[in-house]
Amino acid sequence: MKERFLMKEIDPAAYTAMLGLEKYLSGTGISPLHQEMIRVRASQLNGCAFCINQHTQDARKAGETEQRLYLLSAWKESPQFTPAERIILAMTEEITFISREGLTETTYQQALKEFGLKGTSELIMAINVINAWNRIGISTHRVPGQ
């Protein structure tokens, strides 16, 4: 696969707007580890190799273990994830696969109970931002490791 173009070079205003969303996320109450968990899992679901490569490295730097990274795709069957992380992962899958059911009422209510309205809003934004990056990466054929 040949990389098509770099968004930051061809459309710097669009790229800068996306970076603005990243800046917003850095000021949220979502821990860096949970942000990377969201990024890796959504990227796995979307099949964005560039983002999987980037965010597994970032997750390790944030303190994530190899074991949990290996088990992330099977989190429902893995006891290594906390109840709060299970809510985050369920939200990530439901929002990423929006055309199936979207964010279910059950998961939404669990998120509200665990994270409150503001925290739930921040998680929704984090999930949507990585989904946008995934679509950019896949559309432009970003090559992992470059």
TrEMBL record:
According to the UniProt entry, its GO molecular function terms are:
peroxiredoxin activity
Tell me the InterPro entries matching this sequence: AhpD-like, AhpD_core, CMD-like
Pfam families associated with the record: CMD
Carboxymuconolactone decarboxylase-like domain location is 13-93
Its transmembrane ranges are none
**Know the name of this protein?**
Carboxymuconolactone decarboxylase family protein
Which regions form coiled coils? none
What domain of life does the native source organism fall in? Answer: Bacteria
Read off the SUPFAM superfamilies from this record.
AhpD-like
